[in-house]
Design brief:
This protein has 121 residues and is mainly alpha-helical. Helix content is 85%, strand content 0%. The chain is built from six helices and no strands. The longest helix has 26 residues. The protein is elongated and about 45 Å long. It starts with a helix and ends with a helix. Keywords: Membrane, Transmembrane, Transmembrane helix.
């Protein structure tokens, strides 16, 4: 895999590990409140915490898939392209159903990465 898409893919993976960290381990923190636009009372609800931890796990799967594809898969381009495409789809869905900022914060880096994967194939 070429260097530019590789670096961008790693950045997208790191972003999703950070989201995992917020959703699974820092659910009620000030950073999580700011990132998700939700108040501490809401985030303290046990049901919300369960949902957030589940989402965090999925973000971890995306990040791990990207890194596995980038560094260990025999067809790294195909694997990374698949997982980055999953991030794009999730960001578009999140932007349409939850908050437009998701499209900007998660979608734009993934879309740029996807474009570079195609250009530098």
């Amino acid at each position: 895999m070429q260097m530019i898409p590789l670096v961008l893919a790693v950045i997208v993976a790191l972003e999703h590990y950070y989201i995992l960290y917020l959703e699974m381990f820092q659910t009620t923190s000030t950073k999580a409140q700011q990132a998700f636009g939700l108040d501490k009372e809401f985030l303290s609800d046990e049901r919300v915490q369960t949902l957030f931890k589940n989402q965090g796990l999925y973000n971890g799967f995306l990040a791990t898939g990207i890194l596995w594809g980038a560094f260990f898969a025999s067809n790294s381009w195909a694997v990374v392209t698949f997982f980055i495409s999953c991030v794009v789809v999730a960001a578009v869905y999140g932007g349409l159903t939850s908050s437009k900022s998701i499209l900007l914060k998660q979608g734009v880096p993934a879309i740029i990465t996807l474009v570079t994967l195609i250009i530098f194939r």
